[in-house]
Amino acid sequence: DMKVTQMPRYLIKRMGENVLLECGQDMSHETMYWYRQDPGLGLQLIYISYDVDSNSEGDIPKGYRVSRKKREHFSLILDSAKTNQTSVYFCASSTGTYQDTQYFGPGTRLLVL
Amino acid sequence: AQRVTQVQPTGSSQWGEEVTLDCSYETSEYFYRIFWYRQLFSGEMVFLIYQPSFDTQNQRSGRYSVVFQKSFKSISLVISASQPEDSGTYFCALSGNYNQGKLIFGQGTKLSIKP
Question: pLDDT by residue (tens digit) across B9-31?
Answer without folding.
Answer: 999 999 999 999 999 999 998 88
